[in-house]
Amino acid sequence: MTTPNPVMGPVSPLATERLTLRPLGVDQVVVTGGFFGEWQRRNREVTTPHALSWLERDGSVDNLRRVGDHSRPGPHRGMWFSDSDVYKVLEAIGWDLGRAPSPELDRVVTELTEVLRAAQGADGYLNSYVQAGFEERWENLVMSHELYCMGHLIQAGVAHRRSTGRDELIDVARRAADCAVREFGVQQRKDTDGHPVIETALVELYRQTGERAYLDLAVQLVNVRGFGVLEPKGHFDSVYYQDATPVRQQSTVVGHAVRALYLLAGVVDVYLETGEQALLDSALRQWDSMTATKLYLTGAVGSRFDGESFGDHYELPPDLVYGETCATIASIMVAWRLLLATGESRFADAMERALYNLVAASTSTERDAFFYNNPAQRRTARPAAAAHARQQRAEAPGTRPAWFECACCPPNIMRTVASLGGYVATYSGTGIQINQYLPATVAAGTVRLRVDTTYPVDGAVEVAVESTDGTLWTLGLRVPGWCRGARAVVNGVEVLEQPTARGYLEITRAWRPGDVVTYTMPMPLRVTVPHPAVDAVHGMVAIERGPLVYCFESPDQPDAVDLNRVELRLDRPLTERAGVDLLGQPVVVATVPALARDDAGWNRLGWATLGEEPASGWREVELVAIPYYLWANRGPSVMRIFTPVRHPPEDS
Amino acid sequence: MTTPNPVMGPVSPLATERLTLRPLGVDQVVVTGGFFGEWQRRNREVTTPHALSWLERDGSVDNLRRVGDHSRPGPHRGMWFSDSDVYKVLEAIGWDLGRAPSPELDRVVTELTEVLRAAQGADGYLNSYVQAGFEERWENLVMSHELYCMGHLIQAGVAHRRSTGRDELIDVARRAADCAVREFGVQQRKDTDGHPVIETALVELYRQTGERAYLDLAVQLVNVRGFGVLEPKGHFDSVYYQDATPVRQQSTVVGHAVRALYLLAGVVDVYLETGEQALLDSALRQWDSMTATKLYLTGAVGSRFDGESFGDHYELPPDLVYGETCATIASIMVAWRLLLATGESRFADAMERALYNLVAASTSTERDAFFYNNPAQRRTARPAAAAHARQQRAEAPGTRPAWFECACCPPNIMRTVASLGGYVATYSGTGIQINQYLPATVAAGTVRLRVDTTYPVDGAVEVAVESTDGTLWTLGLRVPGWCRGARAVVNGVEVLEQPTARGYLEITRAWRPGDVVTYTMPMPLRVTVPHPAVDAVHGMVAIERGPLVYCFESPDQPDAVDLNRVELRLDRPLTERAGVDLLGQPVVVATVPALARDDAGWNRLGWATLGEEPASGWREVELVAIPYYLWANRGPSVMRIFTPVRHPPEDS
Q: pTM of the entire structure?
């Protein structure tokens, strides 16, 4: 199959020989409906104007305007890296324009690009905070986010260029990148930015332009990090900045979660272009460590409020999780690159878990309100977020705020949703792989497929071949890690192949137009047991169904049930209730037999000596579990995912 | 019994009619040895010079010097409330001078008082940060800590006056208090300081001076709070500042833990002087809620790093606990006042738990290094604290730092240890109560007792009557909440009385010099079960012995045992090993049968579907538990308190 390179998508390697799988762009994979199709529609119609309005209200655009227009006096407003919010919104719009044209969004890009062009220095430097004089240029890299902001500008320029073929925004980005190359590359500076993202951005700019200096600088910035080149200021140490251990020696993810994972995405990008195996090895080592010991069931990563950072292995308390939305999005970026590199479907599994759970839960069903950090348990119903107001990032309120003082997450969600088509399918020398199941059309070379499904409501997927060239090729269907008994039927005939070691059910034939594959992933409710070393949920289980993590939320429970005082009965069957409309979404809810506990006998006691514990009373109840992503859409509530089991599995 | 009033101790109510128990000062109760006697010795010989040296190194004294001596230029160094560190060290020295005179410490007080006198404004105002021009006076109360610093100055002045009878320091404090009375009291301002402590300090100054205006201002500052009088800035809301709910309506402790409990100490102090029952009711309500739902077994309070604040009910994760040392010390201040008000020994129990566990663990055995926040679990051995360096407060390193950027905790420990004699015994119209068991002499009126014990190594206490006046009076011996089967023998004859409802074993007789009471509190190892709603330690237990919480620390365990992968066997007996010398301390260690788990089968999995869990391997091991307060004195280590049980209690 021949397809364009670069593709209209967020990762498009030039050195394709190291790709086990190759990407397809948002023009080649069009999401046509379903959960994410509807979200993409709202992302354009609701979230984008919402974000643009906030970027004006919170001063982010004005900060840049003032640099180019000295007749507009005023202080810098908001965070010193607020430029990056503008760039991420521009990136989102960029991918969205690839999905479908829009004169209105074109105009937005043109106007904002004008602002950037006016602000940009003659040498390409661009940073509204530094240019306004609040910081010396390149003098405070540990904190200043100068390369970080440039990285997001580059990503926006690349997105816009790939989607529209236009150069206006990427030209601004290139001038900024050239400025960075002169400062860091030519001079071979030994330091770097406290907040990674420039690395992956530069690799992408190299891919888009073919200009080797960008790749070289990305390599340099990956190489210098880890040798204590950033002098920590204030509260955070070198570990926080991923500057304590060189990447090739690193065995696990440490420090600020977003920074660690943006850097890791850059590391895989550098590997893909240079082929340095040590980088891929490190990335896989860190990934394996993270997913086995530092990942929440919801896809949350970064358990600590302190430093927004990864905790120790197995430090995964649901009540005090930080779980920044951006960190999970960064994990999606890493997973996608590792999927392309290795072709192992477990990376697509991780993306699925992150997208349908944490990322979906980070955003209101209306798509105009967001969680910055994402609770995995809520013991008391906290007050709702103030309407139409910005919120500090921490201490997630009872409902999602409209915007944040530090507004990194909402635009990150926007760019992820807008570019989602780019994460759905891949191709290889032998065929096409479907990695995410959603209604879509897939075009690769002469092959055109139509995918129909109500996934994740159920696990039935129909793939119809609309056109093909008559040659033999392989259709790869991801078999999710959670799935047992996946079956495929081609034109009514069952496929007998077993899934491959890489996790795909592969069907090889001389496909013909009109061929229909019916793929079924059984999706019963299942009970999930945590790793035994995760103390915080010891003796507890979670309910899942297909890719969805379920939660218990107070509005759905019988009267007078306190979700802080329930224990599940696994000796009785869970039951499904399908066809439920919840907040306008078709869902399957779960009914779970449980015991409601009455701890009144404990009275004033916080603990008791074994043998003297007060008796607790019990009554039988039926709890109702819903998909986690829907929680906190009906006002403040109590919520939990992992729940104690009355008789632990080992004794049942 | 007649004793002086005020006594030479930290709380000395004037309105004694509301006191169920009355305090005895540090001159009346002299700690003569044992755990706290040795600590008091080191507190004077090691910690005090250490602290004084750091107050010079970190600029805290210089900040004040510069205000009075303009020939010493330089910026304000350290936290904007660093004056309070100087005052708390002065308070500690004040109490220490009551314990035993010291010309050297007298000279320190004289010199520092000179610095304060030179800095103090003509109207009594004193705050080095504001006077240096970094803040407008009284204009930023939500943040400025102006009344907070004055509160600690007052406490220092009161301590010094009570201990030495000298007026030099309290005169400075009174002038500052008079300045506050003019600004807040006379003008009846509706706002107050973001950080309480002034309330309890003013009540104590009233007690010391008899000047009603100080009490009135304390009442006013308690009354205005809770009506949103502080406009929150930045990250924290009214709840953080205890300004969301008036104290009389408050049902639980909320917000910043130290602030909440300093305020509560002031509330009880106001009750003790004014008799307003609603204040005592609120204090008891908040206390009961805290101890049942927001208190760690170690005595830690304030689970959250975010805002150093109380969490939700039962939000008590050991791995992410904040547990600031100052918060537990503040809880001791509240408990002592409630003990005096109610005469219920459970408040002395709480002090005992806090002192022997969290406060003791907050300090190195050498008494020259400290934890600011106190881990209750440590999964990996973190790097040791940098030697001879200050540390940011958060992310406790593997060992205790020497000092902190925000150095509130070490001086708080110092003043608590120096004044400890004041918390040991009380008297009432009918007799004397022993609330804490340690080697001491107790003098109340004509009665003089000698207490001998090796507590908490064992539970045997000998109380000898050295002098008495021949009248009938009652000796009250606290029966700790953890104790079963306490027995007292007087001159060889067993006492048959049962403990009172308030928790004392009372012995009434016409005591004669030479009478000896032998009191025995059985102290077997015991297994402690958490409240069933504390999810974080669900299915786990802790080991305790007497007042001591035990922990498992890696240096004591058999080779190759990973404390993150052990489960206790409660079907086999725990055994004690007495007479152990650990770090120069006589301790009883516990040997606990357990299974060491091998999770290798889990490989890359963070969770599994029920029924598909990989098998874990097991081997039998004997774990060793030591008193928690000794942990992290032998280099970086892994540590845990609550530990999973292989067969949960309900099934054993």
A: 0.94
